[in-house]
Amino acid sequence: xxxxxxxxxxxxxxxxxxxxxxxxxxxxxxxxxxxxxxxxxxxxxxxxxxxxxxxxxxxxxxxxxxxxxxxxxxxxxxxxxxxxxxxxxxxxxxxxxxxxxxx
Length: 103
Known about the structure:
- It is built from five helices and no strands.
- The protein is 61% helix and 0% strand.
- By secondary structure, it is an all-alpha fold.
């Protein structure tokens, strides 16, 4: 998603990517482009990135965090009502299971 926001918000990034200023790629387009990059290429990129940051004394590479692309899911947004309902539903299910085990 970082690429998506970068492409949306920064003219210089879109210019660098040779995209029209008014054009913003859709998530499936970005995902297909990212998916086309092989694991070997990602590893090479990571190694070169760490070498350059090590030379500049900016990053040791002791920890790596990667943000992934967000996909739509059927999970509802939590609210007080839905959290309460989910808790009650789970408790009822567990109590029924406990009752069955006790019989």
